[in-house]
Amino acid sequence: MDKNKIEQKKPGSNQKGVEEDSPLRLTADLEGNYLLDERTSEMKWLGIFYSPAGGSVHRVAKMLKKKIGADKVDMFCVNDVQADRLLDYKNLILVCSSLGRSTWEREQRDRWAKFFPSMRKISLKDRLVALVGLGDHVTYPKNFVDGMGYMAELVTGLGGTLVGKTSTDGYVYEDSTAVIDDLFVGLPLDEDFESEKTDARISKWLDMVLPEFERI
Ligand SMILES: Cc1cc2nc3c(=O)[nH]c(=O)nc-3n(C[C@H](O)[C@H](O)[C@H](O)COP(=O)(O)O)c2cc1C
């Protein structure tokens, strides 16, 4: 892909094909697929992106922000931003729920589905991405936190590096696409039936993830 990649000069851009007032680089492969590539200016340390707003996912996103330190992190609901905002950050935490793999793409309430097409046009190369997936292990034991599995597939397909994989110890479920090589691809949380475990699970996970983020 790389050797076929050509830089496109956009209107208002300088001779190098990079807009003087924009840190975005627009590249395309020879089939005409455009890829928004990494920012050329200074990136910020950590962005939390979540959806939907107003429920358990939102509450967990706020808990993460508070525990990390509100001054150290920016937080966005994906309803309110375009996918290229992800490129502003070296490190990302993506928080999603699970709505069943078949309903994921058409669920109106959850704006991740609307975010995905534009997300597929960006490159997450050199980005560390940590996932938090909410689910319900009692009602959906065969698809526990499948949404996080979907997200992991997307992120790695875009070149992102997943951090914050967690042991399945302490979780009761029958099957999950979010488990690869006996590890969850991120942090599973069940606010419906195990909310009393959430605070400790987040703290333990952050103890593992934040040092990874500090390294770059
Ligand atoms: C229609 C529907 C489908 C769901 N499917 C799954 C599922 O497949 N796997 C799972 O673990 N949880 C599933 N859940 C549970 C949600 O992921 C869970 O309740 C989550 O905390 C909801 O977050 P929210 O309050 O931010 O929407 C489903 C919930 C609903 C309403």
From TrEMBL:
<protein>
    <submittedName>
        <fullName>Flavodoxin I</fullName>
    </submittedName>
</protein>
<dbReference type="GO" id="GO:0010181">
    <property type="term" value="F:FMN binding"/>
</dbReference>
<comment type="similarity">
    <text>Belongs to the flavodoxin family.</text>
</comment>
<dbReference type="Pfam" id="PF00258">
    <property type="entry name" value="Flavodoxin_1"/>
</dbReference>
<feature type="region of interest" description="Disordered">
    <location>
        <begin position="1"/>
        <end position="22"/>
    </location>
</feature>
<keyword id="KW-0288">FMN</keyword>
<dbReference type="InterPro" id="IPR029039">
    <property type="entry name" value="Flavoprotein-like_sf"/>
</dbReference>
<keyword id="KW-0813">Transport</keyword>
<dbReference type="InterPro" id="IPR050619">
    <property type="entry name" value="Flavodoxin"/>
</dbReference>
<feature type="compositionally biased region" description="Basic and acidic residues">
    <location>
        <begin position="1"/>
        <end position="10"/>
    </location>
</feature>
<feature type="domain" description="Flavodoxin-like">
    <location>
        <begin position="46"/>
        <end position="210"/>
    </location>
</feature>
<keyword id="KW-0249">Electron transport</keyword>
<keyword id="KW-0285">Flavoprotein</keyword>
<dbReference type="InterPro" id="IPR008254">
    <property type="entry name" value="Flavodoxin/NO_synth"/>
</dbReference>
